[in-house]
Amino acid sequence: MSLDACAALVQRGDPDRFQAVMAAPVAARAKLLPLYALNLEVARAPWVSKEPMIAEMRLQWWRDVVAEPAPRAHEVAAPLHDLIQAAQLPTDVLDRMIEARRWDIYSDPFEDQAAMDAYLDDTAGGLMWLSACALGARPEAEAAVRSYAWAAGLASYLRAIPELAARGRIPLVDGRAPAITALALRGQIRLNAARRAGVPRALRPALLAGWQAEGLLKRAARDPAAVAEGRLQLSDFARRGRLLWQATTGLF
What we know:
By secondary structure, this protein is an all-alpha fold.
């Protein structure tokens, strides 16, 4: 029931986000790790069983953790509860982040593009806004943080398309090349909107998790076939260089 347990969980299950949090200032890590561990727990909940009811129960368990005033004796739930209390995190955002993962349990496609947009906003957007809140964000920063988060979430989602398809999901509303290009360009527009709006420097460690977004979205727009073929990756040099640059300069 410690931050060490959260760190170990994220390191094993979400190495990209672990690299991002380790590039953040030490003081920020204690506020980000419980959220990243929660995100990992709820993201994998729909996949641990072929029985939808079991997945539903796992997600409900985490919704109860967020809603209950007393902590539970669990390696992630306890540090998360402490963080919720200390940072006064918006529990409605946490609840939507968990609830959105119900879509992953079933094989139904998104109803339309608006539904997919909402999924990205509730999952990636919710997580990054909660991370910013843990670092002291004020309400006026939410739009910029969520714009950046949506783009970062889209980039990660596009990279996961082959795995989702292999698991029997229909991950995109329109999987044709022109539609993927258009979607990636929308992500770039949101990145640029976040930059124009600006995010206070104290909150920027929360944005480090999206350090690969721009490179991935540019590649998806230029080579949409890379999405379905599992080639949507950055070189190790590009990944490390971008994370180091973003962590050092504070720019995003």
